Amino acid sequence: MWDLYISFEKKNIIHFSNLEDEINYCQASNLLRSLYRRRLSFPRIDLDIVWKEYSKWEETDEELKKTQDKYKQVMINIISNIIFSQVKRLMILLH
Prior knowledge:
With 95 residues, the protein is mainly α. It has one domain. It is built from 4 helices and no strands. The protein is elongated and about 65 Å long. The model has no long low-confidence stretch (mean pLDDT 85).
């Protein structure tokens, strides 16, 4: 579902840029940016793919940095959860 919504909003951005409609273009860009941020905030198997897609699309370094910080935090949480899970399993096996 995320992919369809993001694809739809990308088409809106292209449409508005072709019309030289700067107000709607900015609004659509902000909406798409928000969608990417929400998508990247949920741990999923395709997180790296979504990050690469977003980083190709994003035009501003400032916005890219903001989203990259969130992406990194999610990745840290994923790794921490994996490590915790593995340690917990090991402790169960040792008892």
